[in-house]
Write a structure and sequence with these properties.
Blueprint lengths: L4 E5 L5 E6 L11 H8 L4 E5 L12 H15 L2 E8 L2 H15 L5 E5 L6 H13 L7 H15 L6 H22 L4 H22 L4 H4 L3 E4 L6 H8 L10 E4 L11 H11 L2
Parallel strand pairs: 2-3, 2-4, 4-5, 5-6, 6-7
Antiparallel strand pairs: 1-3
Helix pairs in contact: 1-10, 4-5, 4-6, 4-7, 5-6, 6-7
């Protein structure tokens, strides 16, 4: 059984579609498990299982990607396409570029509200994680975490990777204390704490990868949410100019529902059959 990829859709085929995301139960954004049934795929769809590692400035993107790439190559499947959601779009671009080195015919790339990870991205995503813990964290702890996160974000010259590592270092003791108050078994609590660390590491590594060579031939699926994907990149001056992606398809739907909408799924299904 794979430890690097989760089979979201199974089929008898020599080809596979890959999807890069950080899937967690309970999030309000749609995921590839919701998109897959709408695609009517005739091949497998695999979704990333992010490594359980703590964030740090010494995380090497090549080391982080290697387990995913090794299992793909050893599987013998031909990769038809690589999909990516939000920050996962960074990994989609990078994986597709690497797969093209050994595979005859580069896989197509489809990115959903692609994000370049910067300090505000890490701050926003960390805030969403903490928002899911309001039932276990006390009011003074939530206030402290919010104030510390703001302070750390404003540190001179802080990189996204440094910020992610600092956030997790600050959060860990508070999270452990809060989960202990609930009576949760220590090993179970450690799994939840490690999940937060793994997510911060995921964002940290993504911040150190330049996905734009891959995105230059990608189709971007965009929502109407101004703070997401190419909408945000354009307004912040980080990207979205001609050539940033090969094609953009826009849908009248919020970011959180982008992988749930039938119209977007229909468009992606057409791309995957080309």
């Amino acid at each position: 059984m794979s430890t690097q990829w989760q089979i979201v859709h199974d089929a008898e085929s020599p080809e596979v579609v890959l999807a890069t995301d950080f899937p967690v139960s309970g999030r309000n954004e749609g995921g590839f498990t919701e998109l897959a049934p709408r695609l009517d795929l005739d091949c497998q769809l695999w979704q990333t299982v992010p490594p359980v590692v703590a964030p740090g400035t010494d995380l090497d993107p090549a080391d982080y990607l290697r387990p995913w790439l090794t299992e793909i190559r050893e599987s013998g499947y031909r990769v038809r396409s690589v999909l990516g959601y939000c920050a996962g779009s960074v990994f989609a671009g990078a994986l597709a570029q690497e797969i093209a080195r050994w595979q005859d015919g580069a896989p197509s790339i489809v990115v959903f509200d692609p994000e370049l990870v910067d300090v505000p991205t890490v701050h926003l995503q960390f805030g969403r994680v903490i928002g899911n813990m309001t039932t276990v964290l006390e009011a003074d702890e939530l206030t402290y975490i919010e104030q510390e996160a703001q302070r750390l974000a404003k540190a001179d010259g802080v990189t996204p990777a440094e910020f992610a590592a600092n956030l997790f270092e600050m959060f860990r003791p508070l999270g452990e204390k809060a989960l202990a108050r609930t009576g949760m078994e220590p090993e179970f609590a450690e799994e939840l704490i490690s999940l937060v660390g793994s997510f911060m590491a995921y964002l940290s590594v993504a911040s150190n990868i330049d996905p734009r060579p891959g995105w230059a031939r990608a189709t971007a699926i965009s929502s109407t949410s101004p703070g997401s994907g190419l909408n945000r990149l354009r307004s912040s001056g980080q990207g979205g100019e001609p050539g940033f992606v090969a094609e953009e398809l826009r849908f009248d739907v919020e970011h959180r529902d982008l992988l749930r909408t039938d119209d977007a799924a229909k468009a992606v299904a057409e791309i995957l059959t080309k």
